[in-house]
User: What shape does this take?
Amino acid sequence: MAQPTGPVARLSGISRERFRQDIYPLVRPGVCSGRDPAWPAPLGAGGPLLGAGAAPGLRQLPRSGLTSCSALEIAGCPGAGVPSDPGAGAAPPPSRQLASPVPRKPAVLKGIDLGTCTTKWTVDYLSQTAGSKEVKIHVSTVPQMDFLSKNFVYRTLPFDVFVRRAAEVKHNEYFISEDEKYYLRSLGEDPRKDIADIRKQFPSLAEDIQIPEYFEKEQFFSSVFRISSAGLQLWTHYDIMDNFLIQITGKKRVILYNPRDAPYLYLAGTKSEVLNVDNPDLEKYPLFMKARRYECSLEAGDVLFIPALWFHNVISEEFGVGVNVFWKHLPSECYDKTDTYGNKDPTAASRAVQVLDRALKTLEELPEEYRDFYARRMVLRIQEKAYSTNYE
Assistant: This one.
């Protein structure tokens, strides 16, 4: 049985306005506190997202594996320095309310000026420039890393030693085995209090990269430096903030799942129990094949926009270096102020889950027949009051 895919967009000559409408619609601030302010100013440096001129177009990504790619690919996306949009700061028309937003979609942006990093960040350059700074890394003897079972260990290495090991297929020096794989996810100086920011943790390398400014500076949350061994696969998970996955060197394959398909992903917190998304164990996870699969390939210089709540699984087909930039799509008060990783659920969602847990605990006071009946009524009420018909 083939896994279903999302629709493949095939659009030509897409305009900046169309991109903003179809891929990244604006969000009204204050939604967490119930305020009703005017529609916000446009994202980016005072103007439309994609800069002057229309993007050359959208095209279907190449087929890979079981299914066709159905993320959007947008070529030739200039950055800042664009003309302003005089109508973007106006209040939304009455028909455009929060109850029926345009859903944001994953998109591969090509042709963005990322600075000199795409040509300079060789293994030798990274080793010499960042030096022997100690970094905490993941070490795994298997390609598919599992955060739930922790089938990897944490170790510390000088950065220059780590980079050279991560670029190797077989190691003369190793922790567990000669073919172990390495993964770096940069952290703040004190991970309990500080966010990852490449400008602070790796300032000499940060000078080489130009981050796409498609969001306001005050929305910035973190910039995570990532390095992966060839063949390494990260577990399927979602993030609560919008982000760009910037592929500086190497190639990645990314598989995404729509947030609406969460019931089929066998979740434990923010992560899926299904590790092998290409060849899943359908006896153990029979519903997984119902999840719509979106797939794209990233090459050096590509930028993948991953909307908040979209599940994604990342496979490094080559040794690669990337930077993940996260920003706050919602107003700041929506987020947990103690979250330094950007993966804690919004505060309102956390409170709702706590209330639900208390309600389920209360249901345990009833006999099974009654508990089942009222639990089903609760589910129906949640569907009636909270489910949306505005998303695919």
